[in-house]
Design goal:
Layout: H1 10-60, H2 67-81, E1 84-88, E2 94-97, H3 101-104, E3 125-126, E4 132-140, E5 145-153, E6 159-165, H4 167-190
Antiparallel strand pairs: 1-2, 1-6, 3-4, 4-5, 5-6
Helix pairs in contact: 1-2, 1-4
């Protein structure tokens, strides 16, 4: 008796199962990247801003540094961390800014009197070196950009505002998803 069933070659079955698995893994990576990575990134960026606040506080409190030395150290810190600073003296004049003067007017103004939001939730957080701060995400329509901004009044009397852009994460997600898709296609081709 002849068996009329057509058998697919084993290599085709193996290819489809491996290619399907690769496609599923790529889809899961892209989905998780799009859904969860922005929240993870925002949390890590907020922690990074808090640690940078401690570094700024340490520089401003250095008694052995001249004003020029402090400016140089703050410039280095701004370049190394990719975080912009606006530092105000106790009389509310700009002492140091890595933000162009024309862009300072677009900065968010943080409340100095209330540390609670409209729902009564405490907004005040504390860094590892006990510097209190408020953090916020702000969309600047005039500049068409979204920023994460930290505001703190240090014990020395200086007011510090740290700003970093959110655009790199959105671009990073697109680039990572394209990379994963390309890698998945390459894997299927190699299979």
């Amino acid at each position: 008796m002849k068996n009329n069933k057509k058998f697919k070659p084993l290599s085709l079955k193996l290819f489809t199962s491996i290619a399907g698995t690769v496609a599923l893994i790529v889809a899961v990576f892209c989905l998780f990247n799009a859904l969860f990575f922005p929240k993870y990134y925002m949390k890590r960026e907020q922690e990074h801003l808090a640690l940078t606040l401690d570094s700024v506080s340490n520089i401003l409190n250095r008694k052995d540094f001249s004003v020029i030395d402090k400016s140089i150290e703050l410039e280095k810190l701004s370049n190394d961390t990719n975080i912009d600073f606006i530092i105000f003296s106790p009389d509310n004049t700009v002492t140091y800014s890595s933000v162009p003067q024309s862009a300072i007017r677009y900065r968010a103004v943080f409340p100095r009197s209330s540390n609670k939001n409209a729902k009564g939730k405490n907004l005040l957080k504390v860094t590892p070196e006990n510097n209190s701060y408020i953090i916020n995400t702000n969309y600047l329509t005039a500049l068409n950009t979204e920023t994460i901004e930290l505001f703190s009044i240090l014990k020395s009397g200086y007011s510090v505002q740290l700003l970093t852009g959110v655009a790199p994460i959105k671009n990073g997600i697109v680039i990572f998803n394209r990379f994963i898709l390309t890698l998945g296609v390459l894997c299927c081709f190699i299979i």
